[in-house]
Amino acid sequence: MVKKINTCIFISGNGSNLKFIIKNSREYNFPINVKLIISNNKFAYGLKYAKKYNIPYKYYTSNNLPRFERNCLIEIKKKNIKLLCLAGFMKVLTKNFLNNFKYKIINIHPSLLPKFKGLNTHKRVLMRKETYSGCTVHYVNSKLDSGNIIMKKKVFVKPTDTINTLKNRVLKEEHKLYSKAIISMFR
Ligand code: GRF
């Protein structure tokens, strides 16, 4: 049995990436264990998975970001968390948080970084008539979507794509890529 890394996942919404990470983490040889889920949105659909899989979860408002981060750090310490995964978490963590959490933080972004950082990725990809897009798992630093890249997956854009069809096709790849990237970090 591998010694699993205690992991916390931050979400804000649907939590479909969270769901796949939880499912994969139940495999005996997957390197992490999801020990804590934190949402900054009380109504995040993803919290459903915390309940379903019996994983401790917390909601803290992020209206006051420093306070949110303080609350998170307390809980993260209690649970001996050694990896933080952002999965559809819609806030940029402050430098103070990054300095205080001594372990790795990773994120998934629905584009081929460094292209199309930030919001409305798929809309911008379509407007720019890109022939392909994709998704990226990367380390988090204090600049938005800018940390070192761990892994990327290319997804071709179809001429008939709408924001939704492209988003769904990229999301399917995200679900596989996030776990692959986590495995690669501990190989
Ligand atoms: C994903 O596209 C992710 O890349 C982006 O937000 C979306 C979250 O989806 N950061 P979900 O909440 O995991 O379903």
Defining key terms:
alpha/beta, binds 5-O-phosphono-beta-D-ribofuranosylamine, 187 residues, 35% helix, 7-stranded mixed beta sheet, 7 strands, 24% strand
Point out poorly predicted stretches.
Answer: none
Percent helix range: 25-40%
Average pLDDT works out at 97
State the strand order across the main sheet.
Answer: 3-2-1-4-5-6-7
Bound molecules: 5-O-phosphono-beta-D-ribofuranosylamine
How many individual helices?
Answer: 6
Report the structural category: alpha/beta
The geometry reads as globular
Distance, first to last CA? 15 Å
The H/E string reads EHEHEHEHEHEEH
Report the portion of residues in β strands. Answer: 15-25%
Radius of gyration: 16 Å
**What is the total tally of β strands?**
7
Give a short account of the largest sheet: 7 strands, mixed
SSE arrangement:
Elements (H helix, E strand, L loop, with lengths): L4 E7 L4 H10 L6 E8 L7 H6 L4 E3 L5 H14 L4 E4 L8 H6 L3 E6 L11 H7 L4 E8 L9 E8 L6 H23 L2
Parallel strand pairs: 1-2, 1-4, 2-3, 4-5
Antiparallel strand pairs: 5-6, 6-7
Helix pairs in contact: 1-6
The structure holds 5-O-phosphono-beta-D-ribofuranosylamine.
5-O-phosphono-beta-D-ribofuranosylamine binds next to α1, β5 and α6.
Can you describe what's shown?
This protein is an alpha/beta fold and 187 residues long. It is 35% helix and 24% strand. It is built from six helices and seven strands; from the N terminus they run βαβαβαβαβαββα. It has a seven-stranded mixed β-sheet. The chain is globular and about 50 Å long. It starts with a strand and ends with a helix. The mean pLDDT is 97. The chain binds 5-O-phosphono-beta-D-ribofuranosylamine.
